[in-house]
Amino acid sequence: MAVARMMKILIAAYRGEAAELLEQLQQAGIVELLDAERAMITKDWPELQIDIERPKDLEDMVGKLERSLAFLSLYATDKGPVSILQPRVVVNKVHYSEVVSGVEAGRIGDEAGQLEAEIERLGTELENLQGTFETLLPWRQLPTPPVEMCKLKTATCITGLVGYQHFEEVAEKLYELGAAVEQVGATSSAYACVIVCMNESAGEVQKVLRSGDFEPARFEGITGTVNEFLTDCERRLEVISSKLSKATTAAAKLAKDRLKLQILYDHYQNLLAREQAKATSPATENVMLFEGWVRRKDYPQVAEIVGSFSASTVTEVLPGEGEEPPVEIENRRGVRPFEVITRLYGMPHYLELDPTAFLAPFFAIFFGLCMTDAGYGLLMIAGSLYFLRKVQGDKKFARLMVLCSVTTIIAGALTGGWFGDAIQLLNVGPLVKARAAILKFGFDPMEKPQIFFVLALVIGYFQLQFGLAIAFFDKLLRKDYVGAMCEHLSLMLMLNLLVAYLFGGKVGISEPVRGILLKTAFVPAVIIFVLSHREGGWAARLGMGFFNLFSTIFYIGDTLSYVRLMALGMVTAGFATAINQMARMAGEVKYIGIVLAIVVLLGGHLFNIFISGLGAFVHTLRLQYVEFFPKFFEGGGKMFEPFAKRYRHIYVNKEAG
After folding, report:
1. pLDDT greater than 60 at residue 655
2. Main-chain phi, psi angles of 225, to 5 degrees
3. CA distance 185 to 137
4. What are phi and psi of 393, to 5 degrees?
């Protein structure tokens, strides 16, 4: 339930041992390394050299593997044993080592590169040839080779396309000029025409053709007839298509072995990270210096790793002036899933409290109150447990949803929500009696919404006061006694005295006592006005003090924000009831009524679980971030990012194999 204590370390390693040492540190994943730009040692000793040479060979290798994987994924017929919950392929250590040390994966990568180049070349050739074929197809019936048509001495031969809408007009004008027009084919929008005219009228003929959107034909490279050329094109297209089919088949076959490339890619990606760490770390001629952060509890493990190398040492160093350690939070098992909420907001500062343990019970309870349906909670816990069992990597969110599902079941049982009003509609005696027995400890929000309203306000007010209490004790621990008393304790006292005055009559507090409480509230109000801001001159102090005192009115709005718990809870219950009524009406349809009712029930309730669960999560999150956190939590710390092995495609099972 705290921010992990950090210590700064400096590792000095002989150059010959640096690569292996980095691999051991990367495997452990417990040290955050600082590059030369962030390391304080380079500021203290600017004469230290930095190997700025990039590991280009490794970068090229990783880039080549990435391109090969992207290429093979296009032709993969089986996507492998992966899913949304398990996006990475599970590989045991033995198989991982065999692939990395073998040459098969490299061969697959080379072959993939060759196939990619061949398929790209064949595809371009096929596309160009198909374009030429389609362009010349309207001229297939032209009996004379195009080259012969250009050898006329006293006449000019013009070939091209004339649009349907202009053909009659153009043909008539050409006949008037003494030109002959012959149609030899057509496209979807134009006729393929041969126009022959005397040389002296060629200029006028060209003008007429231009006025009709004439498109000249081109026959470059054709020595025989167009039909002969197209026949040869068909043969070449068949040959290219066959080669392309064989190449794509080979790519699909090769794609079945892409797991080896994925293993090799992740291996070289981690190797590249080590080389980049070396390249960006300060060094002398023979020694490399790695400056970084480690959790204090992990320092013995780092010392053990470094101590296993004969020419390497590690020592604790003091942080530089103004240097703030990275932040990692540590919590007990029951609270750990709620770290998801804290990390979404942002890490605390290094000397700040970790809010996870404080928000955990509130988040779980609020989520349950927003759902208020035990039937939904049962389905949610089943789905969350399945998700927990199947998901790879960090399971915090799955565990968080398990805990929220439990509170949903409890809240639903105490408010009588079992898939809406399903128990009442079924009218099964034992179920109705069981629901009624449980409701003795709770209430039905559809019948007594005022109880839900008051409950939401009371819980909200309690959380706000709890946030102020956290801030109060935090300042006491930091020995800021004046700030704790004048900023937080005085505010808590004033708010509670005012609440007791306003609502004390409902709990039996007499009018004279309430008057005393109101007068007593002036004491903390004066303290807030005079002492809540203690910097600058008295004008500034009193001005800010008045603002702080006036800002207490915002607590009314903050408290009212918790009414959303009641609103969402009743919407979930109301929507569930409406679904049941729709299913009941659908069941009255002849012949297919039962089927329709089942579809409405399944689809409607699943949709309600999803949309209500999303709303419950978002609005409960908002209550923590907007209402609760500002009372004691600032955030903005830099997250601890240890130097560790990372895998994009595979999940190495260290226990298997």
Report:
1. no
2. -75, 160
3. 8
4. 75, -140
pLDDT in tens, 600-643: 999 999 999 999 999 999 999 999 999 999 999 988 899 999 99
- Tokens 């293993």, residue? 263
**What's the length of the chain?**
657
Are 565 and 366 spatial neighbours (Cβ–Cβ below 8 Å)?
A: yes
Per-residue pLDDT tens for 33-54?
Answer: 998 788 888 777 776 766 656 7
CB atoms within 10 A of CB 438: 16
What are the strands, taking DSSP E only, across 379-530? none
Q: For the residues of 28-63, what is the DSSP string, one character each?
A: HT-EEEE-TTT-HHHHH-TT-EE-----HHHHHHHH
Which residue from 242, 247, 249, 251 is spatially nearest to 112, judged by alpha carbons? 251
Residue 440 CB neighbour total at 10 angstroms: 8
Quote the CA–CA distance of 364 and 334 in Å, as a whole number: 12
Rounded to 5 degrees, φ, ψ at 608 are -65, -40
Q: Which residues partner with 327 through β-bridges?
A: 639
Which residue has tokens 């296009």?
74
CA–CA gap between residue 585 and residue 602 (Å, rounded): 15
Q: Does residue 530 contact residue 542 with C-beta atoms inside 8 Å?
A: yes
Q: How far apart are CA 504 and CA 349, in angstroms?
A: 40
If you average pLDDT over residues 138-159, what whole number do you get?
89
pLDDT band at 657 (very low <50, low <70, confident <90, very high): very low
Token duo for residue 413? 């049982």
The residues, any chain, with a CB within 8 Å of residue 326's CB and separated by 6 or more, are 6, 32, 293, 350, 637, 638, 639, 640, 641
- Angstrom CA distances, 176 to 164, 172, 181, 195, stand at 20, 6, 12, 13
3: Cα separation from own chain's centroid: 26
Which phi-psi region, left, alpha or beta, contains residue 632 (left: φ > 0; alpha: ψ -120 to 50)?
alpha
3-state secondary structure of 183: strand
- Quote the pLDDT of residue 75: 87
User: What integer is the mean pLDDT of 189-210?
Assistant: 92
| Residue 295 CB-half CA count within 13 A | 18
Q: 30: closest CA among 508, 641, 655, 647?
A: 641
Q: What is the DSSP string of 270-324?
A: HHHHHHHHHHTSEE-SSEEEEEEEEEGGGHHHHHHHHHTSTTEEEEEEPPPTT--
> Which pair of structure tokens corresponds to residue 350?
């290094």
Contacts with 87 (C-beta within 8 Å, 6 or more apart), sequence order: 392
Residue 343: closest CA among 351, 352, 354? 354
* Cβ atoms 341, 356 nearer than 8 A: yes
Pairing of strands 215-216, 49-50: unpaired
What pLDDT, on a 0 to 100 scale, did the predictor assign at position 84?
Answer: 65
Yes or no: say if 361 and 603 are a contact pair by the CB < 8 Å rule: no
Q: Residue 120: its pLDDT value, please?
A: 94
Distance CA 563, CA 366 (A): 11
CA pair distance 219, 225, nearest whole angstrom: 10
Exposure of 323 in the CB half-sphere (CA atoms within 13 A): 17
**Domain 144-224 annotated CATH 2.20.25.10:** no
Summarize the confidence of residues 512-529 as an average pLDDT. Answer: 87
514: left (phi over 0), alpha (psi -120 to 50) or beta: alpha
Domain spans, the chain: 144-224, 336-631
Give the pLDDT confidence score for residue 85 in this predicted structure.
66
